[in-house]
Design a protein that fits this description.
The protein is mainly beta. The protein has four helices and 24 strands. It folds into two domains: 212 residues, Beta Barrel (Cathepsin D, subunit A, domain 1), CATH 2.40.70.10; 146 residues.
Amino acid sequence: MPTRFTHALTASLSLLATVLLAACGGGGSTGTGTGGNVTPTPTVNNTAPLVVDGGPAGNSANTLFTTIKLCQHGSTSKCQTIDHVQVDTGSIGLRVLSGALTLSGLAAETDSTGANVLECAQFADGYVWGPIAVVDVTVGGLTAPSVPIQIVGEAAYAGWEPAACSTGLKPENTVADFGANAILGVGPFLQDCGSNCASATTLPSTSALYYTCTAAQACTQIAVATTAQVLNPVALFPQDNNGIAIKLQAVAAPGAATATGTLFFGIATETNNALPSGVTLFAVDGTGAFADTVYNGQHYTNTSFIDSGSNAYYFPDSTIATCASYSGFYCPGATVSLSASIVGQGRNANTQQVAFAIDDAATLFTTHMSYTALPTLAGPAGSLATFDWGLPFFYGRTTFEAFENATVSNVSSTGPWVGW
């Protein structure tokens, strides 16, 4: 039975602005991209292949994976290639499961006293816990040096997580529980917490992230400089670092055994990542949210977003039956055709009506057990008043995402924004 892996950070779902840097908007608004300037043939491989499949355990649905290479900082020989790394536009930074990591001798990040820095990252469906290490990260043909990443589930710190991290959430510190060997968070921000975690006077009182510990349950929340937080590796590439694009093949309902695509680095920096003339841009706020999604007469103001790390559309609708045997998914009994309007923030306050369909999840999971790409999978948003445009939204589209403060050729407003 497919597992529900909705790996958007809780902050993205509940809009805790304390967890992500506030966006700094640029002036003006462009209705569409104009195609950008003519750029030379890419001098490096600024792409990485994408695949939707069953993941390491063979039981994932709508989970987008790529492959990365980790190296000890400064080494070209002490490296490990890791496949089935989930690509997530709903979180920031690289987190590698200890159970998938064979590379040793990684440099641990420490505070001013020499204590190891640990992190709790809370997702929509659970939490991960582990220390911060500094490595060199290669994706495609580009390498980001000296990147702070999280090592999830390291045995030395098992059970040490404080109650603020774990209460009410499921631990996902193993490959089996997490559903991937690692997660590459390429959301539109540079750090996973930003200025709010950089000062002792602004530390978030909920969803705390960084700690030092002396023993199990003996942890102290700490401030961590923005340069030492878990960082977006793409923004640290030497070029093609102003954003990403995800191009994913179209998948006809009810689905397919697998799907493929391409992750592009940079926007309008090379001939292969130019903005097409018909693209529409939607500015997002400091949590990655649109100004609104209007569905069934309800407004999800500043609480809706696209997220490749969520494996379904998630939204409230009490008129659609939920599944008896597959908790967290809709089971309407037959295909339901729906639509909603997405509205961008003020810098790019464009509006677009998006049509989509949902199918009976129980039928998808039992009748089409070999399918891992399910374009009509959907579920309720639980207690959250949010509209999560998950991975089904990405099928058949090229979706662009500009990082905060980034400039893109012939686009007047700076990031963060998304477009398709």
